[in-house]
Amino acid sequence: MSEHACSHLVDAMNKKGWDYNKVATELGLSEDHIKDIFTGKTKPTPLESNAILGALKISEQPPHDGKHATTGKS
């Protein structure tokens, strides 16, 4: 498995029995974009971040550090 920027997201995804494709389908995004977000290659927009947290039923906010930053775009 590749290195993940946020193992918390991967753990939540695995707990639901989902893969990147399922997350992407639920959010209407490409699988490659989801992989890039989960591996830290791309920072999500605040909207994408909130959608991912909601889809994976994560209620706590991510830490405020570089790994968990979002873009300034919505």
From TrEMBL:
<dbReference type="GO" id="GO:0003677">
    <property type="term" value="F:DNA binding"/>
</dbReference>
<protein>
    <recommendedName>
        <fullName>HTH cro/C1-type domain-containing protein</fullName>
    </recommendedName>
</protein>
<comment type="similarity">
    <text>Belongs to the MBF1 family.</text>
</comment>
<feature type="domain" description="HTH cro/C1-type">
    <location>
        <begin position="12"/>
        <end position="60"/>
    </location>
</feature>
<dbReference type="InterPro" id="IPR001387">
    <property type="entry name" value="Cro/C1-type_HTH"/>
</dbReference>
<dbReference type="Pfam" id="PF01381">
    <property type="entry name" value="HTH_3"/>
</dbReference>
<dbReference type="InterPro" id="IPR010982">
    <property type="entry name" value="Lambda_DNA-bd_dom_sf"/>
</dbReference>
<comment type="function">
    <text>Transcriptional coactivator that stimulates GCN4-dependent transcriptional activity by bridging the DNA-binding region of GCN4 and TBP (SPT15), thereby recruiting TBP to GCN4-bound promoters. Involved in induction of the ribosome quality control (RQC) pathway; a pathway that degrades nascent peptide chains during problematic translation. Required to prevent stalled ribosomes from frameshifting.</text>
</comment>
